[in-house]
Amino acid sequence: MKRTTSALAATGALVAIVAASLVGAAAAPASASANGNDGRNDGRVKNVIYLVGDGMGRTHVSAGRERYYGADGRLNMETMPSHGYVSTYAVQKGSAQPGEDGFEPNYVTDSASAATAWSSGVKTYNAALGVDAKGTLVPTAMELAKKAGYRTGNVSTAEITDATPAGQMSHVLARGCQGPVYSAKSCQDAEVTGAELPTDDLRVTPVAKQIARNGTADVILGGGLSRFDAADEKALRAQGYTVLGSPASQTVATGADLAGAKGDKVFGLFNQGNLTIEKAKRENPQSIQAKEPNLAAMTTKAISLLEGKGKKGKGFYLQVEGALIDKRSHANDAAQTLEEIKAFDDAVKAALDFAKKDGHTLVIVTADHECAGFNIIEKGSFTNAEAANPPVNVDGGNTANNSTPSRAGGNTKDASRSTGIVNGAGSNDPHNFAPATFRTADDPKDVKDGSPEASLWLTYLSGNHTGADVPIYSYGAGSDKMQGSIDNTDLFDIVTGALRVR
Ligand SMILES: [Zn+2]
Fold this sequence. Notes:
By secondary structure, this protein is of the alpha/beta class. It has one domain (2-374, 465-498): Alkaline Phosphatase, subunit A (3-Layer(aba) Sandwich). It has 14 helices and 19 strands. The strands form five sheets. A ten-stranded mixed beta sheet has the order 9-10-8-7-11-3-12-18-4-19, with helices on both faces. It has a three-stranded antiparallel beta sheet with strand order 14-16-15, with helices on one face. Strand 9, helix 9 (255-259) and strand 10 (266-269) form a beta-alpha-beta unit. Helix 2 (111-120) crosses helix 14, helix 7 (207-214) packs parallel to helix 8 (230-238) and helix 12 (324-330) packs antiparallel against helix 13. It is globular and about 70 Å long. The relative contact order is 0.20. The site of zinc ion (ZN) has 6 residues, from helix 12.
């Protein structure tokens, strides 16, 4: 599927949208049962729940499955009836849109460009949020849904001002412009706009300031309390938000606060920065961090706060991000990458359980990009990075494999660069290229993580994002549009089309 038009609007004008058309979206229609309708969904989508595993590539899903459910098992997301792949590339600053003159792709995206792609239907440069590659403001699906009377929610384990959640409810030239205060260094980008913008321009207004004042999301749950200040709290309360904890006093909200929360609009941030990894909470049960809700609890509560309260019978649009998959992949921390995949998949289950009961909910599970070239290698083997020399061609008998120059004399392990199998903290050693090993649901009970006997051997290629396509799973009416290969900008058309808001 290729887009031929882009959704663009002049600065400040969220209403004038050139409708983005999805050309060639005629994938084979799936049967009702293949869509997960169970005969109860008449094809009308009332609610959309959009779940993003940040940095979650295809191998992250496979490794999570093997770790927790075994080779023959399935993560909850994998039980969803419609599967496909999403291309994620970004563009250079100043680039035109795909298919136009002056189109300059950048094959590896960041979370900001990717979030803008599905939130607003345009390709943009890395670091841009809610603006296209020329710096022009573009409306977001969540803004359009809100305007049409839908209830809206935005949930993340990152700071709520971080790229993925911010992409739906702010417009800035640079993702670093999070707040609480404006700075030219973090907010301006004269390379895009030609000259510095006046400081009252929305596109250089800190994300936290925008979120606290624009009312784009009715329910806001996540981290990043330190991005907000007393004036933001005042602005939130003036709009009728129930504020859990307090930005003014920098008091974090707790899971107990969330459980008791009521009201049409709820704002709750549970950490001054990103939320805490599951392992740290488990190992420090008396800490303040252990009081943070997990992603599944935030998802369940957000659904209950949003459900059945839309104007004129309208439903809701909820975005949920499992952010720490990406953050632990950047750190090459396989143990916590796996645990965060499980926590994200538990949130997927919460969304699916609701959708199956409701019958009018489209659930989409995907990622913004792959992170760190995560790989499952053969048990007992080692990577090129650990080798004294690159591997020798071990299949030289096949003429198709006889390349020139040949890679002779390799396939030996370099002891100085291989300290053995590691998990977690060992990945901090720059000399340590060794794979991390994990027991799986298939291993005998006495097999331990980090042992040579554990059957899941994991490595990383780098500490950065890669350009690999990411998987997409969906359930409910309209899922057939997400079978096969699509682009991340197509997701704007699919969601706004399902909600009938474009
Ligand atoms: Zn990342």
